[in-house]
Amino acid sequence: MPEDKKPDNVVFNPETQKYDAALKPYATSVGAPVITTPDTITWKNRSINKINHKVEAKYLELKAEYDKMMQEFEYNKLIFNSKFTFEPIIGEVYHLYKRENEESFLSIIAPEQCNFNPLGSFYLNADQIWEKI
Length: 133
Fold this sequence. Notes:
Elements: E1 12-13, E2 18-19, H1 41-80, E3 93-98, E4 104-107, E5 117-124, E6 130-132
């Protein structure tokens, strides 16, 4: 054995030429506890599962809100493309009908008071947005 080679159980730093076992951030003696790394796979899987559920829930909320908004847009488009010869009043209910020539029109006459082909009843809210009843 060469003179400068120390046994494995001796902690000697050849760069500084000092014994520095006490300065190491880990145990260096044979009787020291075993260094084991924690098993983080379970924690990672739980975290991944949680974030996947959170993202999916948020996506479903946004999709439902988008679908509602698009349906509201389609109703408003349908009504604004229909024929009517009066100015609708906010807070009132109006009824949308379809003529035989496929033209739609808005009326104050309820479906049970006439025999037109009804498409639905709508309420004009304070934001001047038509809501289907």
